[in-house]
Amino acid sequence: MSKRLVIISFFFFIPYLSKSQKVFSVEYASQADVKVYVVEYASQADLNVYKVNYSNQTGSNNGKWFFVDYVNQADKKIFFTDYANQADIKIYFVEYSNQAKWNRKEKMYLFY
Could you state, in order of their start, the residue ranges of all structural domains in the chain? Predict the structure, then answer.
């Protein structure tokens, strides 16, 4: 009986242990968890981001983001700034999912 309980508990809590990257873009900086700036070149970015089509394609803080329709569905609320010095993190949108990665790992804590 206790073995079954452990197995059931394991599968029930797995979604809460993994940190997916569901984000919602807010209108005002004061509403955001993280302020981001989109740079022109990948070499300038702290994080290379790939926009996935479905929420189950997101990773565990690896730069694969899914933009949700409602704020209550998001893991993080982000605000896109107009200037790099206003941002917590600089991102670059990549074309392929295998290009999504952290270039500067010291900023990873922002998405946990």
Answer: 19-111
Query: In this structure, what token pair is assigned to residue 66?
Result: 């899914």
According to DSSP, the residues that pair with 67 across neighbouring strands are 23
Pairing of strands 64-67, 22-25: parallel
pLDDT in tens, 4-53: 544 444 444 444 444 558 999 999 999 999 999 999 999 999 999 999 99
* pTM (global) more than 0.85: no
Residue type, 20: S
Strands 47-51 and 64-67: parallel
Instruction: Output the DSSP codes for 34-101.
Output: EEEEE-SSGGG-SEEEEE-SSGGG--SSSSEEEE-SSGGG-SEEEEE-SSGGG-SEEEEE-SSGGG-E
